[in-house]
Specification:
The complex is a heterotrimer of chains A (337), B (287) and C (612).
Chain A lengths: L1 H31 L4 H6 L5 H11 L5 H13 L13 H36 L4 H11 L6 H15 L24 H8 L2 H38 L2 H8 L4 H37 L5 H10 L3 H29 L6
Helix pairs in contact in A: 1-13, 5-9, 5-11, 6-9, 7-9, 7-11, 8-9, 9-11, 10-11, 11-12, 11-13, 12-13
Chain B lengths: L5 H10 L1 H23 L30 H36 L5 H17 L4 H12 L3 H28 L2 H8 L4 H12 L2 H23 L11 H13 L4 H28 L6
Helix pairs in contact in B: 1-2, 2-3, 2-11, 3-4, 3-6, 3-8, 3-9, 4-6, 5-6, 6-9, 7-8, 9-10, 9-11, 10-11
Chain C lengths: L4 E12 L2 E13 L4 E5 L6 H8 L7 E10 L2 E2 L5 H7 L4 E4 L3 H4 L6 H12 L4 H14 L5 H4 L9 H12 L6 E5 L7 H18 L2 E6 L2 H7 L2 E6 L2 E7 H6 L4 H10 L6 H13 L6 E11 L5 E12 L4 E5 L6 H8 L7 E6 L2 E2 L5 H7 L3 E4 L13 H12 L4 H15 L15 H13 L5 E5 L7 H18 L2 E6 L2 H7 L2 E6 L2 E7 H6 L4 H9 L49 E4 L2 E3 L24
Parallel strand pairs in C: 3-8, 3-9, 6-7, 7-8, 13-18, 13-19, 16-17, 17-18
Antiparallel strand pairs in C: 1-2, 1-4, 4-5, 9-10, 11-12, 11-14, 14-15, 19-20, 20-22, 21-22
Helix pairs in contact in C: 4-5, 5-7, 7-8, 11-18, 15-16, 15-17, 16-17, 17-18
Classes of the chains: A mainly alpha (337), B mainly alpha (287), C alpha/beta (612).
């Protein structure tokens, strides 16, 4: 237990310089890339005086280090600036949109794990058969399906042709009012407040985007679970376990215990990728999440929200990899503190 | 690992349908990138018929909302998509491998070497702390959507992957005694690293090259799909899917189906080719 | 009475892409109750597949085509997996080779033992734990209650082998089968493991099959021997008969290659070398060399500690010791592949330890190295010709034509065909490649070659050829050798003088023949008495050390051997013995061996059996 605390503490400490570096990059990203935001803000016909004025309100005329210090101070107070498109503080916008994205991403990752790992193990232990061939071909698709296209196909089939799914209009159907705000994720909020109509509507809306993400990103987990499990079943210690007369069940447990760490890494990578990659699916389903917010900001050259979104997703990534490392440590005694 | 001869690769490909499929689609893509716009039956950036005509003898894949021929545009698309993906991947490969060799070879060297090696890795860590698509979106969005900027952004984001796979193998190769033998023969460290170690550590990066080209095509299309890639009306798969998306929901399925199918098949081909290349290059996988 | 195990006409095929290949071909064998059978053969002879088949562990693409395997009259090949499960571990125990890979890396040893114990006899966990601790102590693992909590990666190779044996004997099987029980282990540890194995089988009164490529093990621990080659049984005979008069040609070849013939000229020659070398500066003087490596947790690992020795012109000096003794590190420091922490290294009188890298590179043509694994030491993408030419090209000025002529001459010297230049390493055998390694080392006419275990990765027969080549080249070219090895038979054949290393310190240095026939230091005595010769008549006078080699990170105080040494007194724990001349031509680091040598009771007889 003390060893674990030591490990977790050290690993946590390690995230501090990482977050610091992330903030530096986000800060300089805008300043190093071509294009001066003050020209953009002041408009194409602004006089030089007007531009200077904008520069000074943005603090761009100060030395770059003091700009950075000010930037970090503001972030520490939760001030990510104001979006000039929505005229809202960026923090407010993000508060609304982040839970929607997390609902999608967390749901997709959980489902990938719950379906992908057992399926991978099942295929690794069975020899031949239809299941194996099917999973083999499905696994080949890992990472090569355009998720936005699959989403469109699902809409075409289940909404337009079959009429089973609701229209892709966001997190709730038009006629349903949103549940009281607790976490921000509608499914969870509706469940917590016992809001039946909102719950079913939110669930219905969630099915297709979630199915898209799972369909496209689960093969990675599935493939890894299958191949590591196959490798472990042939490994020296499983053969020795078999030679010692251990039951098939015990052999499987030995193999699975050793196969899990790489799978966890892949799940972490999926999470990392989806934090950014869900953008496209959000756009198709008009989800109103963080990704869509980023896209709208990029198209309208709205700098403050872009910075904030990049910063927040990076912070989440750091958190995800922290969790992955800690799980890895718990599963594999060979990791040293 | 044994040195390669092209005849080996051909024999190997013939036994594996996945490899053969990948190879054929890749060759087709390269041909289309070279000649596609020239041999397309219709102009690729102008309306050539009525809006939203369903697939027929003249317009094999139908026409889109502004009346452009989808088949012609699909034929012309590899010139944009493949060029962006290939150029960005080549840049990422060159930089990533070079940095990977340096950081791997000098990881156990003298003090200066170790510092350089650690520094390279830390920077890669930080670049990879950003979710890829959002970072690409921000980079392209901030520098302005254009082919050049998409290439730069993709190259930049892919460098750490090449860096890591190369570094990993370099660390393994570095521990083999032929490296010491090379030093005993009178090689300098840099010469040993790039003349002896690098050729023996290229295989994973080569495998990754193919997969990355496919993945970059996907990213390029994704960026264009949300409007942060190449500007319309360029014949580009992501743009075509975006234009078709609204029609797809109302039942004009051909508008987005065919470009998407081409995209999926192309990306799949590159990833299958990469997968099989790994098997081919790894002697322990061959019986 | 039926035999304990009876294998009849067993044939196993490997189903590959290019059709089926017989891996076992009509194998017959019998083991009686309490009998010990040794199976020997070179790599690829099918001996490991045989064990796997008996155990019913074969999986596709391997397949039994014909034959019977009967354990106490019961046919095993037709049993279901479930029925086999009750026999495996209970009546048949199997300890597979490469022990470290055979233990589940994420479970403590104790859990792995209790799992096996409870698999066959349902029992409460605390009972199983108590039994597991008993098992561990019965295989010689000290402090078993603590060790039960240990994970495999926390154990040494020898400990892992013991743990695997504990797994295999957990249910006192009727027949125990052990695959390569000592591969990868040091000689002193191997001796302990083999003794343990013999004692365990005696206590359990069970049969034993030992599979090994080492004839010496079979000679000393088995009653009967089975020689295998290409999946067939070549010879099956009682050990005494076999070693006295092997019937088959292949057996005779094996025995001849394994036997160490002593070179009678070596002693005279060594005197001549000494004479010639006196008066001129030695080729190499190593003075108080220390090498420390930083390890995790900010501690230091002292791999080489205060080592001093010299090599005269044309002299062959051996550096022997077990793994962790630092012998390889010494070689790498001399070549400047790693930098020494302290001490000086003089080459022909010039200090080279502080020379800038660029300047030392010019000296590389004078000092060369030959490596252990011939495949590993070749760039697999470089043609043989280029590999040999590279040192010439980088350190000498020669025209392309001269270089090619030089390469041809070198190939002649090492006994390879001129056509080899265009080959790639994977197209050659291990023995041929090691010849290339030698050619590369002598390409620049060096004054000194460091050999790092040049024969230990080779099969027995090839080993003898390479040793002959090295011996021959040394005589003809007069190059000084530093021969780093744990293969003591090779050392005895090749080297004029021998230096023994233990935990980074030199414990004894002397003329090879004298040192081998009368080792004075307790460690040298233990080392030499652990060496088995392929001759059952060899009288082993066990001079055993206790326990395992300590970690070089926490070195014992005083004499590093004191905790394991039977001669140790209380002084040994405090005083670090200096390497002093105790006899003409013999330096020794021990407090308890006096100048006069050994008392009569301690006398170690000559290790016979080495000469045939």
């Amino acid at each position: 237990m003390r060893r674990f605390a030591l490990f977790a503490g050290k690993r946590l400490l390690f995230t501090v310089p990482q977050l610091f570096a992330v903030s530096v990059i986000v800060f300089f990203m805008i300043r190093l890339l071509p294009g001066d935001p003050s020209y953009m803000l002041a408009g194409p016909y602004a006089s030089p005086d007007r531009i200077r004025e904008v520069r000074s309100t943005l603090g761009l005329d100060q030395p770059i280090t003091s700009q950075y210090v000010r930037y970090v101070e503001r972030i520490a107070h939760g001030d990510f600036g104001t979006s000039w498109r929505t005229s809202q503080p960026v923090l407010n916008d993000i508060r609304q949109r982040l839970p929607a994205t997390l609902e999608l991403v967390v749901g997709a990752v959980l489902l990938s794990v719950v379906i992908g790992i057992p399926l991978g193990v099942a295929v690794a232990t069975s020899r031949g058969g239809v299941l194996e061939r099917g999973v083999f071909f499905y696994g080949m698709l890992a990472g090569s399906l355009p998720d936005f296209w699959i989403g469109l196909l699902l809409i075409l089939i289940f909404f337009y042709l079959l009429g089973w799914a609701p229209a892709p209009v966001g997190q709730l159907d038009f006629a349903v009012s949103s549940p009281d705000h607790i976490t921000g994720a509608y499914v969870v909020d509706a469940l917590l407040t016992g809001n039946g109509p909102a719950f079913w509507s939110a669930c219905g809306q969630l099915v297709l985007p979630l199915a898209t993400l799972v369909l496209v990103y689960m093969p990675l987990v599935l493939k890894t679970a299958r191949s590591t499990m196959e490798e472990m079943l042939l490994s020296g210690f499983v053969v020795q376990a078999r030679a010692s007369g251990l039951s098939r069940w015990m052999q499987l447990r030995y193999a699975l215990g050793n196969a899990l760490p790489p799978v966890i890494t892949v799940v972490g990578i999926e999470f990392w990728f989806l934090l950014g990659g869900a953008v496209l699916v959000e756009t198709i389903f008009a989800w109103g999440g963080l990704g869509q917010y980023a896209v709208e900001s990029v198209i309208n050259s709205d700098y403050a929200p872009i910075q904030a979104v990049v910063l927040i997703t990076a912070a989440f990534t750091t958190l995800v990899f922290l969790v992955v490392d800690i799980l890895y440590y718990l599963l594999d005694p060979r990791i040293s503190v | 690992m044994r040195p390669l001869r092209d005849t080996d690769l051909w024999h190997f490909a013939r036994l594996r349908p996945g490899m053969l499929f990948g190879l054929c689609v890749i060759i087709l893509n390269v041909c289309l990138a070279a000649f596609g716009p020239a041999i397309a039956p219709f102009p690729t950036q102008a309306p050539v018929g009525a809006s939203l005509v369903s697939p027929n003898g003249t317009h094999w894949f139908g026409t889109d909302v502004s009346g452009m021929d989808i088949f012609s545009r699909v034929m012309a698309a590899p010139r944009i998509d493949l060029t962006i993906a290939l150029v960005s991947t080549v840049i990422a490969f060159a930089c990533g491998v070079a940095l990977g060799v340096i950081s791997g070879y000098f990881a156990q060297g003298d003090r200066a070497g170790r510092i350089a090696s650690t520094l390279i890795m830390r920077i890669a860590d930080i670049v990879q702390a950003f979710p890829m698509f959002v970072f690409a979106l921000a980079l392209v969005g901030l520098s302005g959507p254009s082919t050049k900027n998409v290439i730069i952004a993709l190259a930049f984001l892919n460098i750490p992957f090449f860096l890591r796979v190369t570094r990993g193998t370099v660390l393994q190769v570095r521990s083999r005694t032929f490296v010491e033998a090379a030093i005993c023969a009178g090689n300098t460290s840099l010469r040993t690293a790039f003349v002896h170690v690098m050729p023996n550590a290229l295989a994973p990066a080569m495998v990754h090259f193919s997969t990355t080209v496919g993945f970059s095509i996907l990213l390029t299309a994704g960026l264009s799909f949300v409007g942060a890639g190449v500007p319309p009306p360029t014949p580009e798969l992501g743009l075509m899917i975006q234009v078709g998306a609204q029609n797809m929901i109302t039942g004009q399925w051909w508008t987005a189906l065919f470009p998407g199918l081409c995209l999926a098949v192309t990306v799949l081909a590159f990833s299958l080719f990469g997968d099989n290349l790994r098997v081919f290059l790894d002697p322990t996988n061959r019986r | 009475m039926p035999a304990l195990l009876e294998v009849k006409d067993l044939t196993v095929e490997f189903q590959g892409d290019r059709g089926a290949r017989k891996v076992l071909d009509g194998v017959h064998l019998q083991v009686r109750d309490g009998e010990t059978l040794g199976i020997v053969g070179e790599s690829g002879s099918g001996k490991s597949v045989l064990l796997t088949t008996i155990m019913g562990l074969l999986q596709p693409p391997w397949r039994v085509t014909t034959g019977q395997v009967r354990l106490q009259g019961r046919e095993l090949l037709t049993l279901s997996e479930r029925e086999l499960g009750t026999i495996r571990g209970q009546e048949l125990g199997l300890a597979l080779a490469n022990p470290r890979q055979r233990l589940n890396p994420i479970l403590p040893i104790g859990r792995q033992l209790t799992n096996v114990l409870r698999a066959h006899r349902p029992q409460r966990l605390d009972e199983a734990v108590a039994r597991a601790a008993e098992l561990l102590s019965s295989v010689g693992i000290p402090d078993p209650m603590t060790r039960l909590q240990a994970y495999p990666h926390e154990l040494s190779g020898g400990m892992c082998q013991r743990a695997i044996l504990a797994l295999a004997i957990a249910h006192a099987p009727r027949l125990l089968m052990v695959d390569e029980p000592t591969s990868g282990l040091d000689v002193t540890i191997s001796a302990q493991i083999l003794d343990l194995l013999r004692d365990a089988v005696r206590t359990l009164r069970s049969g034993l099959i030992v599979v090994s490529r080492d004839l010496a093990i079979v000679a000393h621990y088995c009653e009967r021997v089975l020689v295998m080659r290409g999946g067939r049984v070549v010879e099956d005979a009682p050990v005494q008969w076999f070693f006295a008069a092997p019937r088959e040609l292949y057996s005779r070849q094996l025995l001849r290659a394994a036997a160490a013939s002593r070179d009678a000229d070596l002693a005279e020659e060594s005197a001549a070398v000494m004479n010639r070398a006196s008066g001129v500066a030695p080729v190499l003087e190593v003075d108080r060399l220390v090498k420390r490596f930083p390890v995790k947790g900010g501690r230091l690992l002292t791999a080489v500690n205060d080592v001093s020795f010299t090599i005269g012109r044309g002299e062959a000096v051996a550096l022997v010791g077990e793994s962790g003794s630092g012998k390889t590190t010494v070689g790498r420091c001399i070549l400047r592949l790693i930098e020494a922490s302290e001490g000086t290294i003089r080459f022909k009188g010039h200090d080279i330890s502080l020379l800038p890298t660029a300047q030392f590179r010019k000296l590389r043509s004078r000092i060369q190295m030959v490596f252990q694994d011939p495949f590993d030491s070749m760039d697999s993408r470089q043609r043989i010709g280029d590999a040999i030419m590279e040192p010439i090209r980088l350190t000498k000025t020669m025209s392309a034509g001269e270089r090619r002529a030089r390469v041809d001459a070198l190939l002649d010297l090492v006994g390879l065909e001129h056509g080899s230049v265009s080959l790639y390493p994977h197209q050659m055998s291990a023995g041929q490649l090691q010849r290339v390694g030698v050619a590369r080392a002598i390409a620049t006419d060096p004054d000194l070659i460091v050999f790092d275990e040049p024969t230990s990765a080779l099969d027995v027969s090839v080993r003898a050829e390479i040793l002959n080549l090295l011996r021959d080249l040394q005589r003809r070219l007069g190059i000084a050798y530093l021969f780093i090895s744990h293969d003591l038979t090779a050392v005895r054949r090749l080297c004029h003088r021998t230096a023994v290393l233990y935990l980074g310190r030199l414990v004894e240095v002397g003329e090879t023949e004298a040192l081998f026939s009368e080792p004075l230091h307790p460690y040298s005595r233990a080392l030499l008495s652990s060496v088995l010769y392929p001759n059952p008549a060899q009288q082993r006078v066990p001079f055993a050390l206790q326990g395992e080699i300590p970690s070089p990170i926490n070195q014992p105080s005083g004499c590093t051997l004191h905790a394991r040494c039977p001669l140790a007194t209380e002084h040994c724990a405090r005083i670090v013995p200096e390497l002093d001349i105790k006899r003409p031509g013999r330096r020794l680091a021990c407090l308890n061996v006096s100048d006069a040598g050994l008392s009569a009771s301690d006398h170690v007889p000559e290790h016979e059996g080495s000469g045939r």
